[in-house]
Amino acid sequence: MILFTDLDGTLLDDKKVLTPGNRQAIEEALQAGHKIVITTGRPLASGKILARELGLDKEGCYVIAFNGGEIYDMYHQESIFRQTLSIPDVVWVFREARKRGLHCQTYDSIGILSESDNPCLRYYKANTNIPAKVVPDIAEALQEDPVKLIVIDTDHEKLLAFREETAAWAEGKMDRIFSTPQYLEHVAPGISKGGAIRMLCEKLQIPLSQTIAAGDAENDLSMIETAAVGAVMCNAEERIRARGTYITKHDNNHDGVAEIIRTFML
């Protein structure tokens, strides 16, 4: 079987650390011949770091990053799928976010790019373990079209208002979805974790009947509903739990993913 697992709020605890119980269960699943794919809204650079820490850099190990915007083969160290946003559209979102006092950032192959240094950037950098660069002009700093950008604020209502106010412009240009109440993710139209699952399973010739997805947030819904087993963490909001086929008894701080692995894979 193959398990697609989200990171924050799912595989990692609230301190952004992999619990010993989850680590042990992952090792046992791999030894039993199963596959585990990190499936995250995080940038690829961050997902690759954690994959290596988990030992998920062997043949057949992959990272789905940017909410499905990129699929990376850890063993061959190459991207097998990448869907980007246009730089002019990225610049537009940066400008509109700045008008409303919202933090905006995007990514290059190394780390985070932002036009301002603030608590949102510093918090994000600390929790993803990748470098951040503050640049005067995002258009000049980007050497190629990025896969994702994110608008961040501690006030969820401000982000909801931003999404609504820019909805007409974004139609056909970007899909926007929350990975946490503070993070409004922007990706290319049609990009999702669920779509990436289908694409990778087709490449690996693994039937969807052999898939499990584990998540806790809005951006996990597409993969939860795509996989044969859609496992939702008990720490998720009720509206997310209502969409799963299995709800864990243990939360992300108490080996919830290990529970999923032992229930369906071992």
Protein traits:
single chain; 266 residues; alpha/beta; eight-stranded mixed beta sheet; six-stranded mixed beta sheet; 36% helix
Please provide a written account of the structure.
- By secondary structure, the protein is of the alpha/beta class.
- The chain is built from 11 helices and 14 strands.
- The strands form 2 sheets. It has an 8-stranded mixed beta sheet with strand order 5-4-3-2-1-12-13-14, with helices on both faces.
- A hairpin with a 4-residue loop joins strand 6 and strand 7.
- Helix 1 runs parallel beside helix 11.
- The mean pLDDT is 95.
Write the layout of secondary structure elements.
Layout lengths: L1 E4 L14 H12 L3 E5 L4 H11 L7 E4 L4 E4 L4 E5 L4 H13 L3 E5 L4 E3 L4 H10 L3 E3 L3 H4 L7 E4 L3 H10 L1 H4 L4 E6 L2 E5 L5 H12 L6 E5 L5 H6 L2 E4 L5 H4 L4 E2 L8 H9 L2
Parallel strand pairs: 1-2, 1-12, 2-3, 7-8, 12-13, 13-14
Antiparallel strand pairs: 3-4, 4-5, 6-7, 6-9, 9-11, 10-11
Helix pairs in contact: 1-11
Number of separate helices: 11
What is the string of helix and strand elements?
EHEHEEEHEEHEHEHHEEHEHEHEH
The level of helicity is 25-40%
Q: Would you count the extended β strands for me?
A: 14
What kind of sheet is the major sheet?
A: 8 strands, mixed
Poorly predicted runs = none
- Secondary-structure-based class equals alpha/beta
Cα radius of gyration in angstroms: 18 Å
Q: What is the approximate shape?
A: globular
Mean pLDDT: 95
| Side-by-side strand order of the widest sheet | 5-4-3-2-1-12-13-14
> Strand content of the residues, in percent?
15-25%
Q: Report how far apart the termini are.
A: 10 Å
